[in-house]
Write a structure and sequence with these properties.
The protein has helices at 4-14, 24-33, 40-50, 60-69; strands at residues 21-22, 58-59. It is mainly alpha-helical. Strands 1-2 form a two-stranded antiparallel sheet. The chain is globular, with a radius of gyration of 11 Å. The structure holds calcium ion (2 copies).
Length: 72
């Protein structure tokens, strides 16, 4: 079982509107702020990679699952 509290700060950093879900747009904006060359396609691909239930948005559990299985 993944400890979601480990990744909560990261999640909240990306979820700028605080609705508890990360959209491709939010991810792209954050990546740009971090200086990454991120276009919409890259963000959409990343969301798709993390999106376990395929609803097009990344929840905290999905982010935790992804980060815990893909250490940065
Ligand atoms: Ca959001
Ligand atoms: Ca999802």
């Amino acid at each position: 079982m993944v400890d979601t509290s480990t990744y909560l700060p990261t999640f909240q950093l990306i979820d700028t509107d605080g609705d508890g879900l990360i959209s491709a747009g939010e991810l792209r904006n954050r990546m740009r702020e971090l200086g990454a060359e991120a276009d919409e396609d890259v963000a959409v691909e990343m969301v798709r990679a993390m999106d376990g239930d395929k609803d097009g948005l990344v929840c905290l559990e999905e982010l935790c699952e992804f980060l815990s299985s893909h250490p940065l």
